Predict the structure.
Amino acid sequence: MATTAVKKFISGVENKTRRAGALALLKLMEEASGYQAALNGSIIYFGKYHYIYESGREGDAGVTAFSPRKQNLVVYIMPGFSKYQDLMEKLGKYKTGSSCLYINKLQDIDLAVLKKLVKTSVTDMQKKYDCKAT
C-alpha cells in the first residue's frame, strides 16, 4: 500500500487525466513489482538497488518507477528496452528514452502489456542486483 506522501503527491497533480493515470499506475506497478511505492522528489519508485559504475561512482535507485509530469506519464524501465522488443511491439502508442517510457495517457497503451513489461524488468533487475521484494 502506498505511503501517505505518495498519495498526497498524486492528489496534487493538477491535470485530472494525469492524476487518474498516476493512481492507476500506482496500483499496477505495486502489483507488478511486489514493492511498496515510495516518493523521491517527483518520482514514485518501487524497490531500491545499489549500483556501482566502472568509474567508481555509486548510488541507489528505484528498481522501477514513474513520474506524472505535465507533458506525460514517464515510466522508468531500468534495464532499458532492447530485450523487451516483443512486448514493446504490443504496447501501443508511446515514446522512449534510454530507460524512460513516455505515455501521453494510459488509454493509449495496453495495460496488461505494461504490467508484464514492469514485472519482467523488475525480475531482471532482481537477478542482476539481488534486490528481492520483501
The two ends are 13 Å apart (CA to CA).
